[in-house]
Design a protein that fits this description.
Length: about 240
């Protein structure tokens, strides 16, 4: 109403929301143990799926929507530009969570090799199905065959079901599928990867968001960070 010339609330200090520490992630040892079990006991598809989740930091919906054309095997780059949603159980294409989620992720050589092996196996499996066309680059990376014999992107609870089975059968630490993203982020911070690069890899809007979400990792990573720093100074000074 323009009855006052100054805003009396501008000096107010808003309370900060308390950040609760999450235990929804694996340690390095726990992650290796989980992946070894999946590799030995599950379909190779499941091994490739969880390996990619853990080594990329993808959201579950981003992983579900990936197509073979999104992987540049030669440059070891993964392009993330879409999300998979569901309407009445039917898979639909959605935009990413935000504009920062559209990104390219560099993958390690072993993960690339595992994905290449899964592509080879997938092509072989599809070739045995008379109702579908041979594997093409526009196909989804991870799929299942529905009751009509049609190939579909993974259903919503696929990862949850496999994860629950493995965890329960081997009495492992309980985490959710999103916990693999937490694991990726936590371990990046623990080994001293700078928050800016970590945020870009995760598709966060800012490095502060990464630090706020995964602040529990900074203490654990302190010892490794200073060791890397000291080792670097020593090597360059010699």
């Amino acid at each position: 109403m323009k009855l006052i010339t100054d805003n009396p609330m501008k000096e107010a200090t808003l309370p900060k929301r308390e950040q609760k520490q999450s235990e929804n992630f694996f340690s390095v040892k726990e992650l290796h143990e989980f992946l070894e079990i999946v590799k030995a006991e599950e379909l190779y598809k499941n091994f490739a799926l969880f390996r990619l989740l853990a080594y990329s930091g993808l959201r579950k919906g981003e992983l579900y929507f990936l197509r073979w054309s999104d992987i540049d095997f030669e440059r070891q780059l993964l392009s993330v530009n879409k999300n998979l949603g569901r309407i009445n159980g039917r898979a639909v294409e959605k935009s990413t969570k935000n504009k920062f989620s559209v990104r390219q992720i560099l993958l390690d050589a072993e993960t690339i090799s595992i994905l290449q092996e899964w592509k080879h196996i997938s092509r072989k499996e599809k070739g045995q199905l008379t109702t579908v066309t041979p594997l093409v680059d526009n196909d989804y990376i991870f799929t299942f065959v529905d009751r009509e014999g049609q190939i579909q992107p993974l259903y919503q609870d696929y990862i949850n079901s496999v994860l629950k089975r493995v965890v329960n059968n081997h009495n492992l630490k309980k985490i959710t599928p999103h916990g693999f993203r937490h694991t990726h982020a936590t371990l990046m911070i623990e080994i001293g990867i700078d928050p800016v690069n970590a945020a870009k890899r995760l598709g966060h809007a800012s490095s502060q968001m990464t630090l706020d979400t995964y602040s529990h990792a900074t203490e654990a990573g302190g010892e490794q960070t200073i060791k890397k720093f000291a080792d670097y100074l020593k090597s360059t000074g010699d």
